[in-house]
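Note to self: keep these together.
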Amino acid sequence: MSLSIHPLIDENGIIDWLRRGPDPATMTRRSFLKVAMAASALGATGLVSLPRPARAFAYEPYPRDDELQTVVTSCAHNCGSRHMLVAHKKGDVIVRLSTDNGAYQAGGQFGFDTEAVPQLRACLRGRSYRARLYSQERLLYPMIRVGARGEGKFKRASWNEALDLVAGKMLELKEKYGPTAILDQSYAGASYGVLHKSDQIEGLLARFLGIFGCRTNSWSVPSYQGTTFSSRTTFGTIEDGNEDDAFAHSKLIIMWGWNPAYTFHGGNTFYYMRLAKQRGCKFVLVDPQYTDAAAAYDAWWIPIRPNTDAAMLAGMAHYIFANNLQDQRFIDRFCQGMDAGTMPEWAQDKENFRDYIFGKYDGTPKTPEWAAQICGVSAEDIKKLADLYARTKPAALKASWSPGRNAYGEQYNRMAAAVQAMTGNIGILGGSAEGVGKAFHTEAVAYPYDDYANVWWGSIKSDRWAHCVLNYPNVKREEVGLWPRDDELDGKIPDIRAIWWHGSDWFNQLTNINKEIEAVKKLDFIVCNDSTITPSGIWADVLFPIATHFERHDVALPWYKGHYYIHRPKVIQPLGESKTDFQVFTELAYRLGFGEKYNPKATRSYFENDDVVDEQYLREWWEGRVMEHQGVTMGWDEFKKRGVYKFELKEPHVAFRAQIEKGEPFPTYSGKIEILSGWLAEVKDWTKTQYGYEIPYIPKWIEPWESLNHPMTKDYPFHLISPHPRWRTHSIFHNIPWLRETYTQEVTINAGDAARLGIVMGDTVELWNDRGRVVVPVYVTERCMPGVLVLHEGAWMDLDEQSVDRAGNPDFLTKDDPSPAGAFAYNTVLCNIKKSDLVHRPGWDQLATARSHIFRRGDH
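Structure:
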């Protein structure tokens, strides 16, 4: 090989030159390019193997651990845990996130992890949070709408301009339309701590609007409203859950509509259930689909038609009674209305549960054979499960929330509670009374929670706001679940003219989105507080950029279960012009004349610097509530230094242990487990209740308005369910590409159904009914029962010109009709499916230009 490149460089000299680098005194641009081309040619022939320094990363400089500051914090969302995150930062930038390694609590060391004090390890969602913190959808500045509502055109505004606009509109709306004009749609989605809290009851917005004197409340919780009703009716409380360490002592766990691989209720659920499996526990799954949790525990899978769970439970109750397998001693001592012998004297003319099951009142015995015709589970399997559950002690029937998110979902939960009680599995270690499942009590509020908290002048069921707006004033109170009041506003339908979204993406998450879109166009004003540009925010008039939990001082609470607190310092300074919710509401309160009342520890300067005030609230909360009420001896300064406080319980927390072992009364009217509800039996006019429609005083099977047993299947032959995904928390994290690389939004269909329709894996399909239409890829499997489709909730809606959702959000197909007891009918949906040529778009970040560009430019 002969190369003529430069008079000072021969063939061997090229290699030396490549190793040494060129001599600037002799190298021209032209000769440099020749050398580069020659080097490329030599490399292609394999004649040259050039040494290269080893690099661990694709770019430098990459900071090493000893160059980073480590800060303990946590996740912030209502995902089932809120576990520890450890931020590794360089300057004011979080470089990476890790999680609990056992070394952070007092006395801990690296790797410390026990059954009594487990590590609080974050999942992939929490680990990916840096991508959300610095995402292209991050909202950094106040924004004011300039285009049509929903068009997504905004201009950047100053804080003064945005705050003046909102304060002025609030005064105008209150004066013109009265105290119900502003609808509070706050929820615990993206802002939940003891100080910075978005919540329907205890939240910052509720108190702010309450003091202002203009608030319509959203009273129902989408995830578990039917379950909440059941638990309060049956047990008198929603604190009906064991801590998850109790699962390790179960001999049988029935996962009824529950996939703990995706929706753990406590964070360490899988750890304790794995211990149970290792100790010989048997597992059963009752669900339309074979889940990852079922595979992990080798569970007996019982496929069941959606919305028929109460019928199957009634069939199990019949078998248990008929074979005298009930725990009669437990029933006689602790239950009201389970049978004739447990009926109170005042209710001798009322139905009791046992006689209902045997058909005394309606002539229909609820036998396993009767149930099999409704739920699609064979009578033999119903008998087998009932026998197994009744004969195994202790056994945990975990009646999860999903089957309660149906029309008449409360009847499923009440029926499950009856079966739990009749077998004596309540109040014992390894049993279960869930239900809602709230367990260990935490002190949850660090800011003023006083007479102004949760004040409202109208209150409706959360997903009935669109019906109220579209039909006002010709609306009956029962149509919207109007909460009664004792004053002059009782029975008056709220005149809703504005919505405030705080820590919630409810426009994307409530039922019947197309109906919401129709209603939102009629509103006068919409405000959205969030750190991320969400589908809800696209429809707002004013967007307030809210600091994330990495950018404010707070303390994290466990979510429903878990016994710990995690300190959340201000890890980094707020990005852009972000402020905390507390800062925004305090400044607005000053502009409206009640700043000192709303935030008594602050002055007007709080909007510019919140550090001192937040520290005062948190220290006072820790010393005055946590240390005083919960026996914690660790001081505030030590807690901040450690970052976490883990309670070490003397024994696993078991709901109602004191009632069963010590004879303490249940917090019900009768002091017993009320299978027959005293207060339900006494209601005279159901239209004067918040529920609006009659609810049976004992658990009963009620046919839902849509199911595979309905004549509507002629046009819509598939029942759609929309469980929670593993890769999102509702809609949060949908815009994180890392997570969508592991899972994608797709509809699951049974292989036999797919073959009959000519659908194969990966096809793009349409799902539709008379409420809407969505486009999504299809996943074909045997792990879903025939006639059922599975489409996970929470996808960020993305409408085409024909109002077809290209992202696959199932709530374009759901129905917003009122269900007695307030259950959201997310899973009561019939639809059809076919192959489609329509476009599916899985995420905003995959568009040619991210939608966030409209929030960055100033020329709109």
